[in-house]
Amino acid sequence: MKGYVPPPRLTVSNEPLPITRNITITEGISVKDLAEKLDIRAKDLIARLLGRGVFATINQTLDAELATDMARFFGADTNVISFEEQAQKEIAESSAGEDGAAVEGIARPPVVTIMGHVDHGKTTLLDSIRLTNVAGGEAGGITQHIGAYKVSIQDKESPAFGRKIVFLDTPGHEAFTRMRARGAKATDIVVLVVAADDGVMPQTLEAIDHAHAAEVPIIVAVNKIDKPDALPDRVKKQLADRGLMPEDWGGTTVFVDVSAKQKTNLNLLLEMVCLVADLQELRATPDRPATGVVLEAKLDRGRGPVATVLVQNGTLRAGDNFVVGNVYGRSRVRERKSLTSFSRATCRAQSRSSAICCPSSQTIASA
After folding, report:
1. Of the given ranges (24-28, 57-61, 97-101, 318-322), which has the lowest mean pLDDT?
2. ∠ CA 114-118-124 to the nearest 5 degrees?
3. Which CATH superfamily is domain 109-281 in?
């Protein structure tokens, strides 16, 4: 046609821009979100992807390597974070006060992990505290999973009367190393149980290493002192050689001589746990989405995927959405473990009746 001037063709420069900024992106970022972070038009990013032979729409997700290459082409270096890190960052920002300061929260019960060698009386000690008999139901008397319990100090003469403590019971058998490591990472205090008649054993040393790696304080419970061949001083000397010097020997490690069978000095042990917890000033904010760790998970024939979750901060209600690693879903049924039993409720009734204001163990059946 006479006088017609065709529009200029779209040309994409192959010369990358110099790196002048740094942006943070998540795994699986969409084209639209990446364009917004780069402060460019989405169609310019799509055109560059076409030049790379990638046919992408505005809502398509990009892997971390491709998104990094695109950002560097447009003059930005990237810091790739996981979904969990991004979620924690958003939750921390949402929980900040109006003036930008983080909400202080309320005091919360300590999370205490019971660790030690197999058959040194860890589960029996917890049974004596909780007045139950979990050890009697274990195969061969050996714990094979991570048990989580919430107890309350009932002795009215104790200065810690009414205080609550969350206990995690880890296996002591050598085959459950990863479970013990997971239990140590989710805790505030480690109670190391050592049998007075057996002394320090391989899994005892392994538990010490896990506690040191998690940078949590250790309280030593010297169990089975009621036995005729019990030698508590030998245990103290063995642990002192490993760096756990007792307080009465001039060190900083709390030692308590107990007997799970005879229920000796159990209140003293709980008081020491509360004392060490008070030094850490543990706090939590109930009015925020829940964050925590999955202690263990299994596939139940009737309920489907079931996970035992330790809520470390916030409130978890049945029906809430969750993200665990690269898995996401919605919790359907929540079983909250209490002192001696747990209750099951529907989503609506449970969310009304028992909001969590402190760490507790819960079993979640996901949708």
Report:
1. 97-101
2. 55
3. P-loop containing nucleotide triphosphate hydrolases (3.40.50.300)
